[in-house]
């Protein structure tokens, strides 16, 4: 009887394992339909499928958690290994910790309780007429260039009444060109745009993911779509100044932020992202475009630069008020001419 029970139990386990394998295979076939990977060698195909299976297990486990505050889904990152994912993150980033102390830079102050009471309970610029469509940095660590540009685009439109797409490629080529796709800091880039006399339009200087054109006079001679203000062009906030960010957003200014990135973040889909970081993750520059509360959790509405296919139309709701993954550490925005 004991032997028979053992055989039956093994058959049950085997059946469950086969069903699980069938589920993964069906998910893989669906993924290939939605995200074609093109012609691959047998070895490359096997590698991609193995990467997919690993993230698929994480997604299934996470989405099955009744206490999860957000959902995950497959996207372009599902078939990438850790080294490939790092290509989308920063290799160079200087903290804004001392930025607000620099001469000539404006800071947000007087953030007392009365100010908080005057702020609206929620703000969301994702569908504002001045918000450019979500862009795609591609396999290049140029997220700071995209964050810096999104802030300038929005500010320029709010002040001058015309929505103009600006050139991230100008930043990649001309500001710290030795870094190429290694990235940099948005406040460094804004300073370089001041020296360059402004930022070119995307039409005049289009983006080429993963490539850097030769540095030269061409970097500075493209038609400019926006210029930073002559007086107090950069607005810097102290670390953890949640109310300062909310105040700036209420003034129709987007705020660049930098976070540490987990694999779960890279496969985020909907809801409020709340997963803590371990401290050894890569950094990624993004933009706060609003704030609010969902099911009792305070959040920032964040604009990403991984295409509209990422998250919810290219955006993510990110837990607010606890400096999750450093989101309230490096805070800055601009004034434009």
TrEMBL record:
It holds the Pfam family Inhibitor_I29. GO terms for biological process: proteolysis. The lineage of its organism: Eukaryota, Metazoa, Ecdysozoa, Arthropoda, Crustacea. Coiled coil: none annotated. Belongs to the peptidase C1 family. It comes from the Eukaryota. One of its GO terms (molecular function) is cysteine-type peptidase activity. This is Uncharacterized protein.
